[in-house]
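Hi X.,

You mentioned you wanted examples for the new student's onboarding notes, showing what a folding record looks like when two proteins sit in one file. Here is a clean example. The first protein comes first, with its sequence line followed by its structure tokens.
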Amino acid sequence: MPELSREQLSTAFDGTSLFEAKTWQLSPQAWPLTSRQVQELEQIGEACLHFHQSLENLYLRSSADKNLLRNRKLTAPWVAEYLDRGKPARLIEHARDDRNRGQFPSVLRPDLLLTEDGFVMTELDSVPGGIGLTAFLNRLYEVQGDVIGASDRMLHEFYRSLAALSVQGSENPVITIVVSDESATYRPEMIWIAEQLQQRGKRVYCLHVDDLFPLGPTLCLDIDGNPEKIDVLYRFFELHDIPNLSTADYIVEAWAAEEVAVTPPLRPFQEEKMSFALFHHHLLVDYWKEALPAKSLKKLRKLIPQSWVIDPVSLPPGAVLDAPPAAGRPLADWTQLDEASQKERDLIIKISGFHETAWGARSVIYGSDCSREEWQAGVKIAIDDALTNPHVIQHYHKPRRITHPLYPEALKQAAAGSPAAIDRQGRLRLCPYYFVTEGKTQLAGALATFCPPDKKIIHGMQDAALLPCRVVDLR
């Protein structure tokens, strides 16, 4: 297998603005996955879409206080109340609009940790960064063969998933990738994606949200001084940011007039981390069993860690919460989480969604890796914000140690004549990208984030290696 030299990698990254001001560790090899692991990833993609479909049904039936089961009475209006907390009424109304029924994100990206017991899914992202990054890395490492997403499959499937949504059924629709200021870090890679697709004759453009304008009921962009109607809008902005977007009303009005398709849909319940807590809720066990195909139910039960919504309520004497224990006892009040021992604090607290800190691990508190004072402060915030910005608490599953060769220098620090790559220990987060087209998921690439073993929360950082994945059947 040909290995990529440090100089080859540095030259490739320096030749594009896609990675401006970014640093990470370099490796001569793509991340190895067995064909069995790839097959499991394909099954995970299918299960993630089934989860979204079942979540939509749960939310809509809950919001209408309808029965959830076919042959037995079960209502759960509290589910919609949870998922709607802190959301503006107009966005809730839009999410429930019948014209949105059956509309799911075009891109699904779970965050998978590789543990001693296999994969664990900590989140399911529907507005993920890294599409362009992974496509670029796939192309760069393609010389090693069997790269998942080789031959620009990421770009092809991304485009296909968007073009299929064209409201006018155009063979070459006008597609815009719209990026807000809050998401500006990812603008270079979105511009790169648009440019790559333009080179293939596709009418794909990356715009700032202010560059959109209405023309009658349509939504348009300017091309060489002429207005061009947009058929599909891929939003790369978070829903909490909508009040800050000057053209948000134009987007919604053009969608309502059926002049533009918007993906991911403007449906906040699809982007709440508390959906994992709902999956494990003891009152909904029968719902998920009935709503999900048996194969996906089994897969999701293995993947999704036990999670709870932190919801302070008054209980009668003798009652306890559905919650992790503290000081060896079940909780009667969420404030009792303060008493959890360090061993019992093998838990993650994070904001559920619809907030500027809900992405990029910015709100994450890992109980076993912080002081008691930090833990207590995190618990207090979660309790105080429960009605406006709900938090979830989740069992932490530690990724196992593995090895992979790395060069000594980070991306922008590489210099000629440095030592050869050596095997390093670390922990892995795997982010497969699934593109949804006509109700089916297509695995088109996977980004491996290989972090030093002392890092408890795995995400993109200068100490990590970011790598594409290839199939390697070890004998």
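Then the second protein repeats the pattern, sequence line and then tokens:
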Amino acid sequence: MPHGIMRPPMRTSPYVTLLRRNPAFARLYLAQLTSFAGDWFATVALLGLALELTGSSTIASLVLVLQTGGFAAAAPLAGILADRFDRRRLLVAADLARVPVALTFLLARDPDTLWIAFVAVLLLAVGAAVFEPTSSASLPNLVEPDELPAANVLIGSAWGTMLAVGAALGGLVAVTLGRDAAFVVNAGSFAVSAWLIVGIRRPLQAQREAGHAVMGGAIEAIRTAVRFARERRVVAAFVLSKTSFGVGTGVVALLAVFGRDVFDAGDAGIGVLFAARGLGALVGPFVARSVMGTDDRGLIRGIAVSFVAAAGCYAIFPLAPALWVAAVLVFGAHCGGGAQWALSTLGIQRSTPDAIRGRMFSLDYGLVTLTIAVSTLAAGLLADALPPDTAVWAMAALILAAGLAWIAFARPILAAVPATLEDR
């Protein structure tokens, strides 16, 4: 039976087995966990610093906008690099370059020097724009075809794991040891990540044919990726999945308002809701693989269900009578978010040849980060103009509308493509 038809039960052993049997993948996975943890250490500390120095939520939100906007702007160039140069060296260079940049947060001491931190955030986003697509493009070369679904679940859940754990630890470190300690930990995380990747001995890209070269600049890279996706509906559907989901992702910015003000739980309330978000993103990929399967129909159906789950949970969220109920709904919504991220990533990896995979992931990540940045700004404006519950309902409606549009676009694939993605 072709791989992807079976629907394995959700259990821990396949993931543990993969990590034990494949040290190259284990190193990449640990590198992702380490750098994500450092990112959340720094983000929590930096948000607190911006609020303390300026007292402005708008200024603090620039941290998130610069992270996503900088990533989106640099992504097209990163795709060219991932397809043109040795991916292992590229990943290591992206990590090592971020070490001194992360340490410049230590120079932001007052409102007049806060701009230094914002410049550092932007530069770190550029480094992430190089690292993330390159890592995703490399993954099919690190594992066997039958290991790819499990590998994607682990990588896809890494972000949620570190949001739930790293953010909490980052806040604890910032409170007990000071924000400078959190900034130093962030810089150190990139150094550890680079060390782990240096030890990967398996090639991270397929051997190129003689004379092969990736020509052109960022605009040509975008055109190449768009042209490839336009000619293949299934590829376009997977690329547009994250972007469509990102239309309403700005709702996350409203969790702070509900945790602190609506439920009157202060910073602890914010922490509970963001931890629920991280746990959802952690669990979602595992549930999706277990319930929906990993053949092409399973991927499409899983993404469709993810849209409905996210929109539905956030539609009910403002009606929650207590913080714990709201946390359960946030968990459910981001189970959907984590699931669609992992499923769409797996789809792109299977349906895209290695020679162009870096540019495809740069297009994918660039579009979603740009959408998230715009959505976050929109959510902030709605929060200022409307009551919190109305603002959440507006964002939930955007998620639903974008999801229905995506489902309408992807629906023909279910009837037209009976084969698994990896067989095509």
